[in-house]
Amino acid sequence: MRQPRTRLPEGAGQIAGAQSVTRALRLLPLVGRDPVQGVSLGQVVEETGLSRPTARRLLLSLMHSGMVEQDPRTKCYLLGEEAYVLGTLAAQRFGVLDVAHEAVGRLAKDSGDTAFLSVRRDAFSLCVHKEEGAFPIRVQALQVGFRHPLGVGAGSLSMLAALEDDEVDEILSQNARLLREDYPRVSEPGLRAAIAQTRSRGWSLNPGMVLTNSWAIGCALRHPDGRVAGALSVAAIDSRMDPDRQLDLAAMIQSAAQDVEARLARQYARNRPRARAAN
Known about the structure:
single chain; alpha+beta; two-stranded antiparallel ribbon; 8 strands; globular
């Protein structure tokens, strides 16, 4: 599945200062997309639009800090040990994956289909965990590390619908060109109608936005303070998504979402005393 390009504007002359830091850090999600095989320099250039020397220089700076490593055999780039350490530390505050991991597995087992956990990254949705059910025919529209514009996909749509209207407007405007170029089945009027439906019924439906026969149901997750924490979703082939089963899956996902949000609330309550003590 082709992913949208990560457009990083190319500046003239020597890259330095904050611009260099921003560009380098924005390469990390791309490097982490395939945590086992890594990504090649050519892939980085193609995905970002950066020149080959610039991409190489940025990757070298990330290697120097330990955030990225290079496989000596394949020459591909992978996330480094320092990225793991920082991720472990951040998980204590933003540990949605740890909290939701069990729920995703349970959804896959109970539904027989493929369950996902996605999180928001700016104007995009990023898949961070996936579990396969027992049904032999599986969908391929979403994989761990894949990102889609917010609104494209069930989990992604549920997160977009959970935002305030002004933020929705800003995101749709930001992604307008990308939607036109890379997602021919998706339109802004269609997304706005889907947002209204999602808010009305409490769950989202993806009727083949990315692949025609890949449908999904999703539900947003919220932190105790109301911020969007992520989304749970279940995807299946269209023949397994008749209206009655949509309702069954939606109830299943909403129940799982409530469990995850309760665990997030307990986690938040445990961390609050530490934050107060630090002040």
